[in-house]
Amino acid sequence: MNSGLPDRKIMRLKGYDYNRQGVIFLTVCTLDRKCILSQIRMQEDQNVPSVLLSEYGRIAEKYLIQIGSFYDFIKIESYVIMPNHIHMLLHIFPKEDCESNTPRDSFVSRFISTFKRFCNREYGRNIWQSRSYDHVIRDKADYDAKIRYIYENPKRWWMDELYASE
Questions:
Q1: Which domains does the chain carry?
Q2: Could you tell me if 108 and 90 are in contact, meaning their C-beta atoms sit under 8 angstroms apart?
Q3: pLDDT (tens digit, 9 = 90+) per residue, 46-73?
Q4: Which of 158, 148, 155, 120 is nearest to 25 (CA)?
Q5: Distances from the Cα of 13 to the Cα of 70, 73, 121, 123, angstroms
Q6: HSE (CB half, 13 Å, CA atoms) of 31?
Q7: What is the pTM of this model?
Q8: How far apart are CA 101 and CA 106, in angstroms?
Q9: Rounded to whole angstroms, what are the CA distances from 45 to 7, 28, 40, 42?
């Protein structure tokens, strides 16, 4: 039955239990990909970019750092706050007493929802796209590649698929 709404692509890995222990590479973008989280600037004395957080970026970082107090079963292993998106590696350590039985209420979904809600409350408005991108880390090589991607993302900003002029 066609409801008149566009079909949405399912972004989740089919058949994967997002509530089990594992590592997820996550990308959260700003609404309309507006460059409001940070600026990427090349340091003049070196060929190394630096990430200069805006007020929005500092608020986002505050909640990324505090995530352990919100959920003791999630650890952010690495992150980078780019001008219009955030990449992070989430390590899920579920406990038996914090199980979730539905895919819509996965630990990753809860984390994203809480993160956005806390940020938006402090911002006074919503700045996030409604959907995010996740990639389940499958092995050590995949893990190493995503860590490298996060670390090197500021160097590649001007070639990034999410690049937008600031």
A1: 22-157 (3.30.70.1290)
A2: yes
A3: 777 899 999 999 999 999 998 766 777 7
A4: 148
A5: 25, 21, 30, 32
A6: 8
A7: 0.81
A8: 8
A9: 50, 32, 15, 9
